Amino acid sequence: MEKKNIVFIAKSLDGYIAGKNGELDWLFSVPNPDNVETGFGPLMDEIDAVVMGKNTFDFLLGYEGDWPYAKPVFVLSNSLKTVPERFADKVSLLSGNPPEVLKTIHARGCYKLYIDGGRTIQSFLELDLIDELRITTIPILLGGGAPLFGDLSAALMFEHVKTEVFLGALVQSWYRRKR
User: Fold this and answer.
1) What digits encode the pLDDT tens for the residues 83-101?
2) How far apart are CA 78 and CA 122, in angstroms?
3) Is the pLDDT of residue 61 over 90?
4) Strand pairing category for 170-177 and 132-138
5) CA 94, CA 53: separation in Å to the nearest integer?
6) Quick one: which of 47, 96, 150, 169 could link to 122 by a disulfide (CB 3.0–4.6 Å)?
7) C-alpha neighbours within 13 Å on the C-beta side of residue 128
């Protein structure tokens, strides 16, 4: 079975994935009244499961819309012991380092994974466990906040696959890990 770990995330022009106080409202700063598809739907068709960190899950707990995932969701946390009852059939909690987590998820038959959340992405990148980056740049300068990328012990080369513009403003670039 082909294994693939895909990052699909939005960032500001200055490289932040959350504002100085963790705010995410800027993610919706480009109007999309016609609900133009910007890549999320095709990604969901491609993957087997979602892997996210606790902070991303906390954001989803406060989200007022419908649960956005039809696939299994694995939340990585060393502090959470249970999930709210309404998510019990949708979310599994896992702890451990990324290779241990991947081993557990693969044992459950999920091989193509959407990796989400700043620290989670950074920890997977540090261990060279990301195969594709799909990064949407939103035309806003936040001036600080949570950066998409952190320090790496070694450089990781990626090759450009494609770039698309959505809504005349969102620039989505795809990169594949060059090994």
Assistant:
1) 888 888 999 999 999 999 9
2) 17
3) no
4) antiparallel
5) 10
6) 150
7) 9
Which tokens in the block code for residue 71? 């696939």
* CATH number, residue 52: 3.40.430.10
User: CB 13: neighbour CB atoms within 10 A?
Assistant: 12
Range of the domain at 131: 4-177
What is the CA 42 to chain-centroid distance, rounded?
Answer: 14
Model's pTM, two decimal places? 0.94
Closest residue by Cα to residue 10 from 98, 142, 129, 131:
142
Give the strand pairing for 4-12 and 132-138. Answer: parallel
The total domain count for the chain is 1
Locate 55 and state its tokens: 């902070």
11-52 pLDDT, tens digit per residue, is: 999 999 999 999 999 999 999 999 999 999 999 999 999 999
- Write down the H helix ranges in 62-149: 98-107, 118-126
Token pair listed for 27: 């993610």
The type of residue at 172 is: Q
The answer to whether residues 127 and 5 touch, using CB atoms and an 8 Å cutoff, is no
